[in-house]
């Protein structure tokens, strides 16, 4: 039996896992469920040796395991198929499968043995694939099977599948699950991480549900639960909602930002949304629903192929962020703050002032003092904790980084803000402060489009909620702030969509 | 609750001994002392120090040309050939049109800037790595320069130079007196290089343009998402590199006494050495002009010193390589050590 007992993992400013327990029996399919940010990915990374736990232990039949790295975990018999592809496209199927233990002698590759080994693994899955095909020529589903074969080639007894059907069609998913059942019957433990509850109920035997880094259901037989009982467990009825002051949106005001039947080159179809000044429109959906991409299309980073975007009632064709900022006073606080939001190697002052250098500059030169004053204003306003404005942004905690990334748009005096996943990777208390901050911005009259995969957050903050799935808006709701009712409605909306798709 | 929490730790600032500029100064002093003891002629103004200053000036400007694109995390491998092409343009303008110093120089600088802008344009439009683009450009320009010199001159150099270049070559401020007071024995090219360094420093430290270039180098995606026209900044940085390379070509021509086809042949490696020794990162986002001044000085001091110790040319190259490798490794070791200390709780 494989047991991960009371695992703890902290990152600067966040307790990602706080005593999560996972128990696996051989010959079973185990579902690992939880909302975005509940700690699933962190748990998977601990089990596969990517991270080391700060507390708790991993044992297998009573023997404690320590992984020095991903390879050690694989050698110990824990295979993983990540959500993103990890194959080398230019190599053949066989080469990819045996990549970590290439058979050979004196540095020469034994192609015969390599093919035989690959064939053995593919046969375990009963998959018909020529080992000599380059991986680049495979479909996504075939690639996934090759990854499973690769995990099996290391004689894995535990196999973790992270959202394996995210990019598969219904038929392909069915075939994958046939393989999963076969693995179970041959004595493997399969861990299935998925958002698609129908699939989970069809395949899994037992379930662990994570919430806020803790396991709220541990290796429970899935038969005992209904789908809505699982949803309740995932979102948690006892969510302590913070009290935000009531805001009223002046419905007579024209929308600050309006999208009308917008199609994009990325495949969004018929997107219609609008946000009024002083209003927060929550844009909820699962990861991959196309929300950030929609925001980037509005900013001109991706082509809009049909429909109209209006800013304050006037049609707008925004060609880049500079124009969005200066002409339309529209800002975008990115989700991926490390790669898109911040300049980690630059001082905080520059990170905040970068959007307004044009305004500060005198004869092309930027006076230090004014930049410092400006930075200090927003550091104070947002309660950013820094030791000096010259501190590098990369040295701040996640919450403070996020505030810096927000500050540059406030400094630019935007009146429409698209805020993308503002509290991902931020601990609970800072999160609450951030929610107050965002609500405060709306109260000051900003129009806010809040992209979030965090359901409690969306329900606490938004005035209205648009639900996106698969590049479409599948429904819009007026938010009653009644958590139980709203969450049920929204989750059903998404899962109904996944089911019929 | 955010405000009442304990203040965050001090920012991790490198201790004084880990400052690469300081290390360079120390190394410089030690080397000068070493060479002076072995060869007292090292301190001879007319024989050593004055020509040394001219050389430092040229290679400082060469380093600044590279620094302009290192700011982006890019490279300009055509820095020497851009200088050569610009020098040809200066020679041609003077030789065929009879233009004076200022006009010829301006035309040359313009040619350099255009070449740089072309490289930048190709890089920003195609997304091809700057290494590849400027390498290709270097090859193309090598051929072009040979053809140009063959068609416009005897094949090697222009026979004449604009009036005033002789003064840049031979004169020092000691030749210019106001009554009894004469200037120090500093060559006339020195202030040109220093002004260039000051302007580049001003650009990257205080100007919006320079800072936006640095931000683009620091994180191009974030820069674009902050409203910086990153493509334009790439073109501008490369144009600046070309312009400064042209200035370096001009200064070398002044030192050599001719606009010749060989100008820029020796620019490529020193162009990286000066800024990198001075602490400019290859990954972009940070530059040090002062460091580049020190880096250029250090390389030329080593060169001159070993020269005085009568090393053969090939030996000279070998030892310079070794000394620089040692300097860079020491720098790296010091940095790692400092990081480790700073990172400790």
From TrEMBL, chain A:
* Record domain ABC transporter: where: 2-237, 246-495
Which GO MF terms does the UniProt record name? Answer: ATP binding
InterPro entries for this protein: AAA+_ATPase (IPR003593), ABC_carbohydrate_import_ATPase (IPR050107), ABC_transporter-like_ATP-bd (IPR003439), ABC_transporter-like_CS (IPR017871), P-loop_NTPase (IPR027417)
Known SMART domains for this protein? AAA (SM00382)
Identify the keywords attached in UniProt to this record, alphabetized.
Answer: ATP-binding, Cell membrane, Membrane, Nucleotide-binding, Repeat, Sugar transport, Translocase, Transport
User: Which PROSITE patterns does the record associate with it?
Assistant: ABC_TRANSPORTER_1, ABC_TRANSPORTER_2
What is the official name of this protein in its record? Answer: Sugar ABC transporter ATP-binding protein
| Top-level taxonomic group | Bacteria
Automatic annotation (TrEMBL), chain B:
Family annotation (InterPro entries): ABC_transp_permease
Q: Does the keyword NAD apply?
A: no
Transmembrane domains' residue ranges? 21-38, 58-79, 100-124, 130-152, 188-206, 235-255, 267-296
Q: Which UniProt keywords apply?
A: Cell inner membrane, Cell membrane, Membrane, Transmembrane, Transmembrane helix, Transport
Q: Identify the Pfam families for this entry.
A: BPD_transp_2
What main location does UniProt list?
Answer: membrane
**What membrane topology does this protein have?**
Multi-pass membrane protein
Record keyword Transmembrane helix present:
yes
Q: Which cellular compartments is it found in?
A: Cell membrane
Q: What is this protein called?
A: ABC transporter permease
Q: Give the lineage.
A: Bacteria, Bacillati, Actinomycetota, Actinomycetes, Micromonosporales
């Amino acid at each position: 039996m494989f047991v991960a007992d009371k695992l703890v993992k902290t990152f600067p400013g966040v307790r990602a896992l706080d005593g999560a327990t996972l128990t696996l029996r051989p010959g079973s399919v185990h579902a690992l469920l939880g909302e975005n940010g509940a700690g699933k990915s962190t748990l998977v990374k601990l089990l596969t040796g990517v991270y080391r736990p700060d507390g708790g232990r991993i044992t297998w039949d009573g023997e404690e395991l320590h992984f020095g790295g991903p390879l050690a975990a694989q050698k110990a018999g824990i295979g993983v198929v990540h959500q993103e592809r990890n194959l080398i496209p230019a190599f053949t199927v066989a080469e990819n499968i045996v990549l970590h233990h290439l058979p050979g002698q004196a540095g020469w590759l034994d192609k015969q043995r390599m093919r035989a080994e690959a064939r053995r693994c593919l046969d375990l899955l009963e998959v018909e694939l020529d080992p000599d095909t380059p991986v680049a020529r495979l479909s996504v589903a075939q690639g996934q099977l090759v990854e499973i074969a690769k995990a099996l080639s290391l004689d894995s007894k535990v196999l973790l599948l992270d959202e394996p059907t995210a990019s598969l069609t219904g038929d392909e998913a069915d075939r994958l699950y046939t393989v999963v059942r076969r693995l179970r019957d041959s004595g493997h433990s399969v861990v299935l991480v998925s958002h698609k509850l129908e699939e989970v109920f069809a395949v899994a035997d037992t379930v662990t549900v994570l919430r806020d880094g803790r396991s709220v259901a541990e290796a429970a037989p899935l038969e005992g639960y209904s789908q809505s009982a699982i949803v309740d467990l995932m979102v948690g009825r006892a969510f302590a909602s913070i009290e935000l002051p009531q805001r009223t949106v002046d419905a007579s005001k024209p929308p600050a930002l309006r999208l009308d039947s917008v199609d994009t080159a990325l495949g969004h179809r018929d997107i219609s949304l609008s946000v009024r000044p002083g209003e927060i429109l929550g844009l909820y959906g699962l990861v991959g629903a196309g929300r950030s991409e929609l925001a980037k299309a509005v900013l001109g980073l991706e082509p809009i192929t049909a429909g109209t975007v209006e800013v304050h009632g006037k049609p707008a064709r925004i060609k880049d962020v500079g124009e969005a900022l200066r002409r339309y006073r529209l800002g975008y606080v990115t989700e991926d703050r490390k790669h898109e939001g911040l300049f980690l190697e630059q001082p905080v002052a520059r990170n905040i002032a970068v959007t307004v250098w044009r305004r500060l500059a005198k004869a092309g030169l930027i006076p230090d003092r004014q930049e410092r004053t400006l930075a200090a204003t927003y550091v104070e306003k947002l309660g950013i904790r820094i030791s000096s404005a010259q501190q590098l942004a990369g040295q701040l905690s996640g919450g403070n980084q996020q505030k810096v990334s927000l500050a540059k748009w406030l400094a630019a005096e935007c009146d429409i803000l698209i805020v993308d996943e503002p509290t991902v990777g931020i601990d609970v208390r800072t999160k609450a402060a951030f929610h107050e901050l965002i609500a405060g911005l709306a109260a000051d009259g900003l129009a806010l489009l809040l992209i979030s995969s965090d359901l409690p957050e969306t329900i606490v903050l938004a005035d209205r909620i648009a639900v996106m799935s698969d590049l479409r808006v599948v429904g819009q709701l007026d938010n009653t702030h009644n958590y139980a009712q709203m969450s049920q409605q929204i989750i059903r909306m998404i899962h109904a969509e996944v089911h019929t798709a | 609750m955010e405000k009442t929490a304990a203040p965050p730790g001090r920012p991790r600032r490198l201790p004084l001994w880990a400052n690469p500029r300081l290390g360079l100064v120390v190394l410089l002093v030690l080397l000068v002392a070493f060479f002076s003891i072995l060869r007292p002629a090292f301190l001879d103004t007319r024989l050593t120090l004055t020509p040394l200053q001219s050389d430092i000036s040229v290679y400082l400007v060469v380093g600044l040309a590279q620094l302009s694109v290192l700011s982006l995390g890019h490279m300009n491998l055509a820095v020497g050939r851009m200088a050569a092409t610009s020098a040809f343009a200066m020679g041609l303008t003077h030789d065929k049109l009879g233009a004076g110093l200022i006009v010829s120089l301006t035309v040359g600088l313009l040619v350099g800037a255009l070449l740089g802008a072309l490289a930048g344009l190709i890089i920003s439009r195609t997304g091809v790595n700057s290494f590849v683009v400027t390498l290709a450009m270097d090859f193309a320009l090598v051929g072009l320069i040979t053809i140009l010199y063959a068609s416009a001159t005897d094949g090697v150099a222009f026979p004449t130079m604009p009036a005033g270049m002789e003064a840049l070559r031979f004169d020092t401020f000691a030749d210019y007196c106001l009554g009894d007071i004469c200037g120090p024995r500093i060559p006339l090219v020195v202030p040109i290089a220093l002004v260039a360094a000051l302007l580049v420093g001003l650009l990257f430290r205080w100007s919006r343009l320079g800072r936006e270039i640095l931000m683009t180098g620091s994180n191009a995606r974030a820069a674009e998402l902050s409203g910086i026209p990153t493509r334009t900044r790439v073109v501008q940085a490369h144009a600046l590199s070309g312009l400064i390379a042209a200035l370096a070509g001009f200064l070398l021509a002044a030192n050599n006494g001719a606009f010749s086809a060989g100008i820029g042949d020796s620019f490529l490696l020193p162009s990286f050495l000066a800024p990198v020794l001075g602490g400019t990162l290859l990954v972009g986002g940070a530059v040090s002009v002062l460091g580049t001044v020190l880096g250029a000085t250090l390389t030329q001091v080593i060169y001159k010193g070993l020269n005085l110790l009568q090393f053969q040319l090939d030996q000279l190259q070998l030892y310079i390589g070794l000394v620089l490798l040692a300097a860079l490794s020491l720098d790296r070791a010091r940095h790692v050590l400092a990081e480790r200390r700073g990172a400790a709780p």
